Amino acid sequence: MTITFYCYSGTGNTLWAAQQFAPHFPSVKIVPYPENPSSIILPSDAIIGFFFLVHMWGPPRRVRHFLNHVTLNPEAYYFAVAVNAGQVATTLTAVETLLNTRNTTLSLGLDLVMPTNYIPWGDVAPIDAQHQRFHLASQKIATVIPLIQARQRGVVERGKFWHNVIFPTLNTLSTPHIPKMDNNFWVTEKCNSCGLCVKICPSKNIKLVNKKPTWYHNCEQCLACLNLCPNHACQYGKKTIKYGRYHHPEIKAQDLIKLHHPNNVDDLEA
């Protein structure tokens, strides 16, 4: 049996979640969503997990692109894990609908609430609050693992009623503008041209120009560059300069680089 977890992680929450599932399945592979999924054919005896962070109250563009172009096998078992900060809304049912249009079934959709990394909207949560979310997430993961191992159907979770009414519209309106939202990034004099932001960006959207990062309008708002900058030099808008930074404490920059860009791993610390 082929077991593959496709994983898209900005600051480590989603990669951590995939790693919590992995020991319970034989020979599982945790891989990034490929840039060219049209060449991939998923086998019939597979268990396939879609792990991703929620972007603007919906599935990220790269996840939608993958699901629209990969060759799906209706006989395989598919589940999804949507990592979010408490506003999953209709993200998982959107994935379910997309698979249904391709004659495939999403057997289980898990709403996994983790600490927020979206610093432009406010400071990081206190450490004790973060650890409470880690604990609850671990408990929730444990409840669905037996269902997935047995290839059984579970619940495709969705958010609160008013979230489901309002946020899908906001997602539709905001998604076309996400790539150019990187206009709000800038760096302070603390930038030492280390290049970590270039290496860690999942969408290869950053280059060093005159030894300073420049964003090229293919942003996905994962905020890896902001949160994992060793010197807190990367900023977004006017407020982040006074806020802390977040990445999952068990996930380092090297882990995220290895996931998305395995050829760029080096000895950088974060």
Describe the protein in words:
The chain contains eight helices and nine strands. The strands form three sheets. It has a five-stranded parallel β-sheet, with helices on both faces. The longest helix is centred in the middle third of the chain and has 23 residues, at 127-149. It folds into two domains: 3-165, Rossmann fold, CATH 3.40.50; 177-264, Alpha-Beta Plaits (2-Layer Sandwich), CATH 3.30.70.20. The protein is globular and about 55 Å long. It has 270 residues and is α/β, with parallel strands linked by helices.
Terminal-residue CA separation: 36 Å
Rg:
18 Å
Q: Helicity, in percent? A: 25-40%
Helix-strand makeup class = alpha/beta
Low-pLDDT ranges: none
Compute the number of structural domains.
2
- Sketch the topology as an H/E string, one letter per element: EHEEHEHEHHEHEEHEH
From the spread of the alpha carbons, the general shape counts as globular
CATH architecture label name of the largest domain? 3-Layer(aba) Sandwich
* CATH class (first level) name of the largest domain: Alpha Beta
Largest sheet: 5 strands, parallel
The fourth-level CATH homologous superfamily of the largest domain is: Flavodoxin domain
Record the strand order, biggest sheet: 2-1-3-4-5
CATH topology of the largest domain: Rossmann fold
Mean pLDDT, to the nearest integer, reads 95
Count of discrete alpha- or pi-helical segments spanning 4 or more residues: 8
Strand percentage, roughly?
15-25%
Q: Count of DSSP E strands? A: 9
